[in-house]
Structures are given as C-alpha cells and as structure tokens.
Amino acid sequence: MVLFRLKAFGLHLTASASALSLILGTLYLGWYHWPGWYLAEVARVVLVMVGVDVVLGPLLTLIVARSSKPRRVLVRDIGMIVAVQLIALTYGTVSLWSGRPLYYAFSESLLQLVQAYDIDADERALGRLQNPELSPHWYSVPRWIWAPLPKDATERGKIVGSAIAGGDDVIAMPRLFRPWEQGLPELRTQLKKVDDLAYFFGTEKKILKERMRAAGFDPEAADTMVLTGRGRPMLAVFDLKTLTITAMFTAT
C-alpha cells in the first residue's frame, strides 16, 4: 500500500511540476525576463500556483491513494484534486498573462514598466490605427520605447490631469509612443546621481551606492535613472557614451 501511494504521489508530482514549469518557463522567457519579473511583483501569484499545483495536489494524492480503494472512487478523488489544481493553474496563468510586461518606457524623467492591463481596449485600437509599428499585439514581447507628452498644450494638459487623477498616463497610450532612439537626447538630460534621485530613501541610496562601487561604477556620476513598476523601483545605470543600460540594481 505504501509503495502504491508513493508511486501515485511521484506521478502526480512529476505531471504537476512539468505543467507548471512549462507555463512559467514560457512566460518568463517571453515576457518576464529580468527585470520584468521583479518589477511586475508577481511572486504572490507564482507562490499560489506552486503551493496548489506542486505541493498541495500531490500531497492530497499521497493521502487519498490506496490500493484497496475501488478504482472508480480513486479516480473520482484524484479527479477532484486535479480539478482544483487546474482552477488554480488557470487563475495564475491568466493573471500572469494579463499583467505581462509589454514596454519599458522612458517618459519625462523616469523609466517605467508598462504591463498589458495598463493599456485599455480603446487605446489599443487607437494605437493600431495611428501608430501600428509600436502598438501591442497579443504576441508582442517587451520593447524599450519613448513615451513623450504631446507638444499640443491642450492635449498635454488633459493627459497630465488624467494621470494626477489616477486615470491613464501617456505610458498607457501607444498612439503617442516613439522609438527608443528618438528619446535618447532627452533621456541624457534627465540622468542624475544616486543622491539626486527622489524615489529612494537614505538607507536605500546607501545600499545602491555600495552595490555600484562593488560592480565598478562611480556612484557620484550623473548616469543613473529610476526604473519603476508595481513594486519597489530599481536603479538603471547608463553608459554616457552610448546611452545603453549597463547595469540595474535593486535596493532590497
């Protein structure tokens, strides 16, 4: 009986881990690779998926699986366990897909993560009509773009007012996106020293400067910018000659 239970547990664990690894691996490689996983702050969703699909499901099978149990009853019991697992797996997958990173946008003085659910259906439709090259599709993978506010004062004021009120900001409007390269001259003017950045506190700035020194960067150089997302922000360090990001640091 013990051998039967262990075999059922092993098979269930292997199947569950394989399915979850395939889903998480695909999402990570396609959309959540660094720094997306950190900035999107999806650890809770992933922990629920792992807890239900890789831990709880196989353990329940270990408990209910008995060689003396009628086959119909055993199939029913394991079927119920699998059904709960599939619900949790579907919930987690849909949540991760809906929040997948689509853009890393430079706008004003920040780099910001833009996730799929940040852009509503109307803005997607407008983007595909007015700016199809930089608008998102279901298969779009993360891109670095420039999201400047429009030059028209009236439209600019509406967007700023909307953002202040908690509505859509320019980073959620693909029709206004521009290629990353076009924003580099403006980006250069916004680079600052760590001590001049507003998104980090005293202890965090100390940690960031220590990590920069350890990696061979000068923490007193004006070559950094904040990269924000759902969780705590990161620090992006730029090469001042090429304006490429050479390193990213967290303060946690």
Order of helices and strands: HHHHEEHEHEHHEEE
Number of separate helices: 8
Number of strands: 7
Our Rg estimate from Cα atoms comes to 24 Å
For the record, the count of structural domains works out to 3
Instruction: Pick out the low-confidence regions.
Output: none
β-strand percent reads 5-15%
Content-based structural category:
alpha/beta
Mean residue pLDDT: 93
C-alpha end-to-end distance: 48 Å
Order the strands across the largest sheet as they lie in space: 4-3-1-2-5-6-7
- Mass-distribution shape: elongated
Largest sheet: 7 strands, mixed
Residues in helices, as a percent range: 40-55%
Can you put this structure into words, describing what you see?
- The relative contact order is 0.11.
- This protein has a 7-stranded mixed β-sheet.
- The protein has 3 domains: 2-98, no CATH class; 100-186, no CATH class; 191-252, no CATH class.
- The mean pLDDT is 93.
- Helix 1 runs antiparallel to helix 3.
- By secondary structure, it is of the alpha/beta class.
- It has 8 helices and 7 strands.
Summarize the structure.
This protein has eight helices and seven strands, in the order ααααββαβαβααβββ. By secondary structure, the protein is an alpha/beta fold.
Chart the SSEs and their pairings.
Elements lengths: L1 H31 L3 H5 L2 H22 L6 H28 L2 E7 L2 E6 L5 H10 L12 E4 L6 H12 L13 E2 L4 H7 L11 H13 L9 E5 L5 E5 L6 E6 L2
Parallel strand pairs: 1-3, 2-5
Antiparallel strand pairs: 1-2, 3-4, 5-6, 6-7
Helix pairs in contact: 1-3, 1-4, 3-4
